[in-house]
Amino acid sequence: MSDIFREVEEEVRRERFEKLWKEYGDYIIALVALIIIAAAGIQLWHYYERQQTIKASDEYSAAVQSFDTNPLVAANAFQKLAQTAPGGYADVAQVQEANALVAAGRNAEAVQLYQKIAAANDPILGNLARLRAGWAMVDTAPKSEVQNVLAPLTDPTSAWRFMAREILAYDDYRLGDMKAALSGYQALANEKNAPNGLRQRCKAMATFITAGGDRNIGVVPPALPAAPIPGAQAPQAPAAPAGAPQK
């Protein structure tokens, strides 16, 4: 008796399934097809991303190789990468473009680009760009502008504070404020938490200033010969003394 009921139950299920399939089978097939197409699309996209990353890596290496020999060519190459490369390469390429502009002597353009990078949301590249901008502008810009660019880095909790303070100490030296420069360099030379290379540089600068390296120590350069006056006659050679042999 139980077998009959089981067979009836299976028949009912089959009839329900066939009814559902007739009503929704096309939708189910379409859904499965969409899932397969989506999976294939994701795989193709991953492949495309890998190819783009490989291409960006090759172009980045070529730009780096041209940096020392032709920085303007490198700057153009990095600019292209910043516009077309995947995210990570694009961000770093933008910093490298600014570095290449500095190497080419186009500091004003480099500073503008550094400031653009600093205004973005990447804290590491932004702080690096501020530091680079400080060095790029310190020889020509007013001290107040250099201080404004470096202000976020001089906070006592900033990991970049020592490098920013080194730029400010150099700015004092450049402006002739030797007392402030010496104080800044000595403080950095004694900072136990500062990088060793930075402390050594600052110690050397403090020693240089203390030894009078900022002053003229009395070596007088030889006088340049006077420029000839247009139209003036050349001085005559002195007459030979009497009795001197004639040439």
Q: Topology, please?
A:
Elements (H helix, E strand, L loop, with lengths): L1 H64 L5 H14 L2 H17 L3 H12 L4 H15 L5 H8 L10 H14 L3 H12 L6 H15 L37
Helix pairs in contact: 1-2, 2-3, 3-4, 3-5, 4-5, 5-6, 6-7, 7-8, 8-9
Describe this structure in words.
The chain has about 250 residues and is mostly helical. Helices cover about 70% and strands about 0% of the residues. The protein contains nine helices and no strands. Helix 2 runs antiparallel to helix 3, helix 4 runs antiparallel to helix 5 and helix 7 runs antiparallel to helix 8. The longest helix has about 60 residues. It is elongated and about 110 Å long. The C terminus is likely disordered.
Index terms:
elongated; single chain; 247 residues; mainly alpha; 9 helices; 69% helix
